[in-house]
Amino acid sequence: MSLQPQYQRILLKLSGETLGGPRGAGFDYDTIRNIASNVIAVHELGIEVGVVVGGGNIFRGASSSQGNIGRVAGDHMEMLATVINSICLQEVIEQNDVPTRVMSAIELNAIAEPYIKRRADRHLEKKRVVIFAAGTGNPFFTTDTAAVLRASEIGAEVVIKATKTDGVYDSDPHENPDAKRYERLSYDEVLSQNLKVMDATAIAFCKDNQLPIMVLNIHTPNSILNAVCGKTVGTLIH
Q: Between the CA of residue 202 and those of 70, 91, 114, 197, what are the distances in Å?
């Protein structure tokens, strides 16, 4: 039976640590190829795919500086780390003959296109995977916030946050074997219970714009493909 996609356009949010594989740092190319294959499988269904990737495998903003540099400089450094990750992911996807564009919120014309909403729409309509780099281009905003902002701008129907866990739990499942996984949550439940899905700004933005979020495990075979085809995967926040 052929797969029937439930969405026309999605936004995939990846943490930088995901690209680092088990270590969560640097580049694990087996993991990156697996991520690329997941993106390509969705793309081959005719779904338009935007991607936002973090930079935590290289640098995590001011938290990595141990007080040696300020928040603004640290955030700018992490934005540049997301550009490096975006170029890496673009290269691996394009090795499979899938056209891909990196669009940066910070002008880096020699290596990426500037982010322009209408141009991003045109790339997506032409079935190019679009990777949005450099966050929002502003310090003090996370790549989670950048992801939901870009998703709303391009009219994505869902944000898929691909992580190393298979959904949202009431406590850390790596520390608590009895942790409960939620299949569905409301935005208010995420905020009131302080569940670490995305930062509060991103969740509030999704609530205001009625943008659903799916949280799933990127390492589970076909997890993204199953999610976009309407199967119950991970946790849905709506």
A: 23, 29, 23, 9
For the packed helices 143-154 and 200-209, what is the interaxial angle rounded to 10 degrees?
Answer: 20
Per-residue model confidence as pLDDT tens digits over 119-130: 999 999 999 999
Could you tell me if 132 and 89 are in contact, meaning their C-beta atoms sit under 8 angstroms apart?
A: no
Query: Alpha-carbon distance 213 to 167, whole Å?
Result: 11
Nearest CA among 140, 233, 119 for reference residue 184: 233
Distance CA 76, CA 60 (A): 10
Average pLDDT over residues 102-127: 97
Domain boundaries defined on the chain? 9-237
CATH, range 9-237: 3.40.1160.10
